[in-house]
């Protein structure tokens, strides 16, 4: 690979010009966040001022809040736009603010009233800031969906890795990166990439010219035998000379960013992959939250459950609840409850309908317009109302609010050792499979989502899935 000589003056000029053009929206977004945070903190402070009639908190809260957010890098580029890290940093700053106020109290002011007011103002300020960031993120994603403020990315690597990465990026929905070209280490296999609608612009030797001619803002390199440390270093020089960001895709896939940590050993940076959070101690908050929420929902939804039960009972002969043996965590079996949506003799006709299975590529049996489904059952399935009795399973500790789909014993008997990792956690009332298409998902994709959940579980992920569940249910996609 040859590198076009770049003088220091040309390097600075290119980097400055392209960097300004690329990061204009970033600077604007940060300014808007700063203003929104300051306003949110001021509103929270004035609420406290209205309650106690003291002006000191109104003057001290906004700058103190901004300092706390900066201290916890809530405006850092890596945390903006996607994922839950931005929200976590806001919460960390909010938790740290009372400690900062306590230090200021002991070292400088000794103002009991200011310290008291600052402590009380933290909660409304955090709520308002999170709400503002959520709204701003929606607006940013809408701009990305219109191909505005996106980074044009050039992928460099082998064709099979490029295909997998593009598929993963497209599964993630709206994002900042927009793949505009590929330079392959194996150009003879370019047909696989071209079929995705992405132009193949050459091989490794063509990277400098392609970055310059396309104006790519980002160079993303995937692992390949042809890309050793020397080639990788030269590629980074080329990207820097053109003012483009330089990204490396890890060898592992479907891993949450929070599990990847760089550790230096004798000046050699190594990537540390943290183990999944599967211990009882780490999952104790989830266990408590599951049962509290399930019990509360059962009380709150009791009238609706009674109406649905009456509708099922009057619609067709048979029991109101459908009981079925399912497999839970560590292979333990339990009886799962659902509102009955099929005829009482539905299982007798399953073999006759086997040829109509919509999931013939896996172990599930699903078909559209199943003749065994009752009139009431069709409506219940569309809006997932038949799943509500599973709140009893959650309350009993057999299931969780969020987790993999609860499998049948015959499905588990056919699992490979890899797929059996789904059983390391409790099955869920909802999950990534629910918010990503339900029955429309092919078997391999459903397994990938479930394994990704097991490997990358966090409370933040559970909250995000719960927030996405209601819109997914209302759309009714894959519900049959």
TrEMBL record:
| Main subcellular location of this protein, as a coarse class | membrane
Which UniProt keywords are given for this protein, alphabetically ordered? Answer: Membrane, Transferase, Transmembrane, Transmembrane helix
EC number of this enzyme: 2.7.8.-
Which compartments does it reside in? Answer: Membrane
Q: Which residues form the Bacterial sugar transferase domain?
A: 286-474
Q: What highest taxon heads this organism's lineage?
A: Bacteria
Group of enzyme by EC: transferase
Cite the GO molecular-function annotations of the record: transferase activity
Q: Which InterPro entries match?
A: Bact_transf, EPS_sugar_tfrase
Q: Does the keyword Zinc apply?
A: no
Pfam families assigned: Bac_transf
Q: Where are the transmembrane segments?
A: 31-49, 55-75, 90-108, 114-136, 288-310
What's the protein's topology in the membrane? Multi-pass membrane protein
Q: Does the keyword Transmembrane helix apply?
A: yes
Family, per entry: Belongs to the bacterial sugar transferase family.
UniProt protein name: Sugar transferase
Q: Which organism is it from?
A: Streptacidiphilus alkalitolerans
């Amino acid at each position: 690979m040859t590198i076009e000589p770049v003088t220091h003056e040309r390097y600075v000029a290119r980097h400055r010009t392209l960097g300004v053009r690329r990061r204009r929206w970033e600077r604007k977004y940060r300014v808007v966040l700063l203003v929104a945070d300051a306003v949110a903190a001021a509103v929270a402070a004035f609420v406290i001022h209205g309650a106690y009639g003291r002006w000191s908190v109104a003057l001290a809260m906004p700058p103190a809040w901004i300092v706390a957010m900066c201290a916890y890098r809530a405006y850092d580029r890596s945390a903006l736009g996607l994922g839950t890290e931005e929200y976590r940093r806001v919460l960390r700053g909010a938790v740290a603010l009372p400690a900062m106020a306590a230090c200021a109290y002991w070292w400088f002011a000794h103002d009991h009233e200011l310290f008291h007011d600052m402590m009380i103002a933290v909660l409304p300020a955090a709520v308002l800031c999170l709400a503002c960031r959520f709204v701003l993120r929606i607006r940013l994603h809408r701009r990305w969906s219109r191909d505005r403020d996106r980074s044009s990315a050039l992928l460099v690597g082998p064709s099979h890795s490029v295909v997998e990465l593009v598929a993963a990026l497209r599964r993630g929905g709206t994002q900042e990166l927009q793949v505009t070209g590929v330079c392959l280490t194996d150009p003879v296999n370019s047909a696989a990439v071209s079929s995705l609608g992405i132009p193949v612009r050459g091989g490794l030797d063509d990277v400098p010219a392609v970055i310059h001619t396309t104006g790519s803002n980002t160079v993303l390199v995937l692992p390949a035998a042809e890309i050793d440390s020397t080639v990788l270093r030269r590629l980074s020089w080329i990207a820097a000379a053109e003012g483009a960001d330089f990204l490396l895709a890890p060898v592992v896939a479907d891993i949450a960013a929070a599990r990847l940590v760089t550790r230096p050993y004798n000046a050699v940076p190594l990537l540390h992959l943290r183990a999944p959070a599967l211990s009882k101690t780490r999952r104790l908050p989830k266990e408590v939250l599951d049962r509290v929420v399930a019990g509360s929902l059962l009380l709150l939804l009791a009238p609706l459950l009674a109406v649905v039960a009456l509708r099922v009972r009057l619609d067709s002969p048979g029991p109101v609840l459908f009981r079925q043996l399912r497999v839970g965590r560590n292979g333990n079996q339990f009886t799962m409850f659902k509102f009955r949506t099929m005829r009482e003799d539905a299982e007798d006709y399953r073999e006759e309908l086997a040829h109509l299975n919509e999931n013939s590529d896996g172990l599930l049996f699903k078909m559209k317009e199943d003749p065994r489904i009752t009139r009431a059952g069709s409506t219940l399935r569309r809006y997932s109302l038949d799943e509500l009795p599973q709140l009893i399973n959650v309350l009993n500790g057999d299931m969780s609010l969020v987790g993999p789909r609860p499998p049948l014993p015959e499905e588990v008997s056919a699992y490979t050792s890899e797929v059996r990792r789904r059983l390391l956690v409790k099955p869920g009332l909802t999950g990534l499979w629910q918010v990503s298409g339900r029955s429309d998902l092919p078997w391999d994709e459903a397994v990938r989502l479930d394994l990704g959940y097991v490997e990358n579980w966090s409370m933040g992920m559970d909250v995000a899935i719960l927030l996405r569940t209601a819109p997914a249910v209302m759309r009714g996609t894959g519900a049959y």
